[in-house]
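Schema walkthrough. Field components (list of strings):
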Amino acid sequence: MLSVAEENYIKCIFKKSERSLAAVSTNAIAEAMQTKAASVTDMLKRLSEKELLHYKKYKGVRLTAAGNEVAKQLVRKHRLWEVFLVEKLDFSWDEVHDIAEELEHISSDELTEKLDKFLGYPKYDPHGDPIPDQEGNIKYRSKVTLKELEVGETGHVVGVRDSSATFLQYLDEVRITLGSTLTLRNRFAFDGSVQIELADGRALVLSEQVAKNLYITVNS
Amino acid sequence: MLSVAEENYIKCIFKKSERSLAAVSTNAIAEAMQTKAASVTDMLKRLSEKELLHYKKYKGVRLTAAGNEVAKQLVRKHRLWEVFLVEKLDFSWDEVHDIAEELEHISSDELTEKLDKFLGYPKYDPHGDPIPDQEGNIKYRSKVTLKELEVGETGHVVGVRDSSATFLQYLDEVRITLGSTLTLRNRFAFDGSVQIELADGRALVLSEQVAKNLYITVNS
DNA sequence: TTCCTAATTTAGTCCCACCTAAAAGAAGTG
DNA sequence: CACTTCTTTTAGGTGGGACTAAATTAGGAA
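Field assembly_structure (string):
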């Protein structure tokens, strides 16, 4: 049985490892967890003791297979709860993160499986991120940011890179949602902003900042 | 912000106060919380510091208005989650207590209210206990145990006194559920057992033990 | 190679929530 | 009243998870 703090460290390290494939540094964890490096070192020793990660002084850490398993189950629970909050309880997608952050620590496996069934075995959460299955397999979708799209290409929105409340509220404001279909019409070299056309015919100019944070998939 | 441990103590004291109206003793709390009296004294001082209860050495404790409020919100959340687990996720009533025990500590008030709405504002939980409303008002139902019913009287099952898994499983076994209508047909002085007749015509003999743990309401 | 700087770890505290052992109060009994 | 017994509190200690301040190490620059 892991404590909430331990689970949060595991999840944090998992997230950092997802792309970088290098060992995760103490400082990076400290920053992400809003705590001090000394506290992180403490925790790393404990988690290493429990064989959830490999720890060598000054060398950063990587999760063990067991640690990875724990992390993926947490991500699974987090994303399932987010679906529940948005689809069943009518929360908007920018409100659900913090609540799911608490709900993901509820331990019952049976609860997770029944929730999954109740929700109809969803594949993606409200932000477009894939939900790991019971065995922890994650189906990543090939996707590019809107910034990387070619002029003239059409795709649809499958996720956000920055899921801060302010960004999500901005998207609500301009009525871009998950699944929105859009075509890149123009790219302005001046400031990196892009002009898009939505399925309903609306034309919008989005800043480079926005274009970098919107994930698009071209086929599917 | 209260810790999970603090909340559990508050709820425990609340439950003890519900019937007895006397101050709750340190030992009673220790027993209910599966801990030692010394630990309880520790916690009582902290909670008293936070003005959640009145504490005088050797005199037992009572919750303050603020403490009562906290307790009732916890009970509200616990029972709403139990309804969710049984009605939506298809758990049976003997499985939900421990999970609800974790879920009740999720802090978001907005979550509680949206859950309440999603469930259709239920008044009673799966064990027949009343769910406090948003302001903390609890509508107690007048009820008697089956043991106290008069021969010939008809009523229906509105709750259980002992909600242990074994008792609830027993009830499932003999197909008595919340809302079952029954008539007391006979009382055996020898061992205190009772004979009842159910709405579907089945006649059953229940031990005194069972009769004492089934709550019945005659009208309504 | 040596030095410097940034990253990391160690050492020493703190608070929370528990523990054991021992002291002290409450309350009934002869 | 004095005694006994049970309950409760105090005193002192532990591990988890955080902190600050000081020491150590890694790794690049001179």
